[in-house]
C-alpha cells in the first residue's frame, strides 16, 4: 500500500488536526478532551518541534489527509510509545494499514526492539487490531480515562520486533512513503 504518505506535522495542519482531535469519535478514547483553538493547536505543534524523542506525522492517501500518528522514543532509542487515530470519517477502512506501515518502518529501517501502545479498554476494535498484529497486554491503568461520559482502564500493549519479523511476514509488504 505505497500510496500512503507519512509527512511531518506542520502548523499548516493545525485546523485539520483540531477538527479531528475534537470530533466525538476520536476524542472518546483519549485520556483528555480538548477544547482549543486553531492558534492553540498551532502553538502546540510548534512546541513539539525539537522535543526530545517526539515525532509525529499526518498520514495521507494521495493528496487526502486521513490520520495522525505520534511516537515518543525512549532514551535508549530502541523502543517507542506510539498512538494514532483516523480523523477522516470517509477513510476509516485504511485504519488497519497505518500500523503495518509504521511497524515495518520502525522495525526494519530503524531497528526498534519493541513498540508500546496504550489503548482504552473500551476501544475493542483497536485492541483487537493490535492483537491481530502481535501485540500482547502488559499492564492495566485503572480508570486511565475518567470523563463524565466514559470511565475505563487503559491497557498497555507491547509488540516485540522479533515477533513481528518472524510471525507476521505477510504484513511486511505494507510500506509507505515517509517524507522529511
Keywords:
180 residues; alpha+beta; eight-stranded mixed β-sheet; 8 strands; 29% helix
Walk me through this protein's architecture.
The protein is 29% helix and 35% strand. With 180 residues, it is an alpha+beta fold. The chain has an eight-stranded mixed sheet with strand order 6-7-5-4-3-2-1-8. Strand 3 (64-73) and strand 4 form a beta hairpin. The longest helix is centred in the middle third of the chain and has 13 residues, at 97-109. It is globular. The mean pLDDT is 93.
What is the 3D shape?
globular
Find the structural class using helix and strand composition.
alpha+beta
Order of helices and strands: EHHHEEEHEHEEHE
Unreliable stretches covering 5 or more consecutive residues: none
Secondary structure tally, helices: 6
Percentage beta strand: 35-45%
- State the major sheet: 8 strands, mixed
What is the first-to-last residue Cα distance?
19 Å
Mean pLDDT: 93
How large is the radius of gyration? 16 Å
The strand count comes to 8
Counting copies of identical and different chains, the oligomeric state is single chain
- Order of strands across the main sheet: 6-7-5-4-3-2-1-8
Helix content range: 25-40%
